[in-house]
């Protein structure tokens, strides 16, 4: 596939290697020709103002002038993710001893995770690059998001999942139609197969493989929204779950862009990463003072964060160290307690990744790594309805009674 | 409980009986003193303009000047529901032979159903009326919404469900904390017990029982949003799922209020009701030309619509007949096909109630009752993640393969 003069990727200008800095032209590329490092989008932003953003649609496309998507992206059917709630969380703050806390609740997206953001950007760029099929390997949220986005756009999807996935997770993707393939193997096997297919099937855009540079930029919108929803300013501290690590680095990138564009005041902020202890390679590297991330074999209920060899791990370490943050991890029991605490204090039922973030927030406050008097934002990146198993043995009814007033009175519930 | 001079229920002025027209003062009342008919809120609206609404928050409180809630309602923590997507559904339209179709997707609410709207209004009014506990009988969406809203508001919830409810549905409410009681009986037993407790426990606001007049008004926001999101105009036709029937009548009320306030142009519109054949008492009454609705024993997969004796059934018939609409019902097989069609064409995974609405839309087009060339809106009131059982046997993967390129090629998926 080659770019035509009609190709419009908005303000994107080139692909730059994050390792060696080598730059090449835009296109369906994801690895550096020189050193095989990951490519990232470079931009030349036109005049983007608070007013021009506020005049945009009530979804991520209000930031289209900062994304690698065509200027007319809103004319094409898409799931219109974003502009999810930023919830002032006074009760959670009180429970943890913080003074000013916000939850960015991305469970409000169309398929109820932040993946709708990255998939929407990947889809828009993939169409522009001439791809015909939207594909991914996944075990959950990404599969939902890809199948839904492709259905809405009227193009074919091809989703690959391990064949031992729970039947419920199979249903939630299969319902959108498209090609849906179960693969006899674990997620690593599925991922490897996806890369092989991407190399062979010219028109297939695997969102997290061969169009990953575009896809990853979608996470910037989380950062943009937080700054805009705070009234065009940055928080002092932010806690972000770390799977591949991409989300954390892109939120930082978004903050930096807003500063450079003069959309927010330049001020210090600290970025913290949250992992599950059962899959905490970045936390381990941070604590050991290492620059490289040693892969681990995941063993945690936080499946959406269970990436043992996180592609952006080193860049997470860069951001966290540059801003004076930290990476911390919590046990599965702390994850469950985090889910319950968020639900009980703020009425937000997050998935396990949300529990990780709340648990890590608590731990960072207790250790003194995070300043409880500084304004803090945490990310809830997904929905508890998708990870019910994680809490099924931890929550229960208060009482069981016969259907009579007498039974109600006897149960002493008043 | 008595109102104090400080009680602020916004533009609400009185409670008026829908049967005999008798009016009484605002308060914690739900049945007419004269005839036991249902009470409804009367208003004296101040100056509400498009600009004043557009300047409001991005949730239902932008319409607070039209709801029975205090003027400072946004100062109190709440789940901030509403302003969900209105999705232009060209592919679904094409599949059904319509020209201009929109889906109002209320699965984007905080607990993923329209119940967040009515509960938020009930909570705001209940606090103002002096209630201390937010309660409900429920089998699903309402339980989620009440428990979440109370948690967020920092007040106690008391939710009553049949003890034979699936464990998954118990988890999704129990996670929010509060008092959660399973009752040995069916939903009717639970409902009756709730009424008895409401009569005895002074501070308990059962949202759908003793504060129902306030609660029901929350559904007006669906109508307001549709009109605003269409660019301050009314659709020609709207298809609304019918459980108690309240939602349909309140959307009509919202349209009428907008016309009276000069916020939209006065024009004819037709309101259609959608039921499942296994619980279609209003459809049956409509087809038979009756004014009264004969109760039925529900037997349908569309559990959120399974109200055999719908309180607002007669008022649904009034609205539908006044506007030239109809009430139609579909079989469970058609419900499943409706869910799948909505997912495949628009990437929206609706719950069974959404499947009912799509199925009825199709049937109304085929019968000629609905004009395919007129602009139509349908409501998706809840989320498919909550009713997975309904489609578990109808959707499946396309293929199962070994994790090799050879297997991929052999499966002929390219």
Automatic annotation (TrEMBL), chains A, B:
Pfam family for this entry, one: PALP
Keyword Plastid among record annotations: no
EC number: 4.2.3.1
Matches recorded under Gene3D superfamilies: 3.40.50.1100
Cofactor requirements of the protein: pyridoxal 5'-phosphate
Keywords: Lyase, Pyridoxal phosphate
Tryptophan synthase beta chain-like PALP domain ranges (all copies): 82-382
Keyword presence, ATP-binding: no
CDD domains, per the entry: Thr-synth_1
GO MF annotation: an example: threonine synthase activity
NCBIfam families: thrC
Family, per entry: Belongs to the threonine synthase family.
Protein name: Threonine synthase
Annotated organism of origin: Actinomadura parmotrematis
Primary gene name: thrC
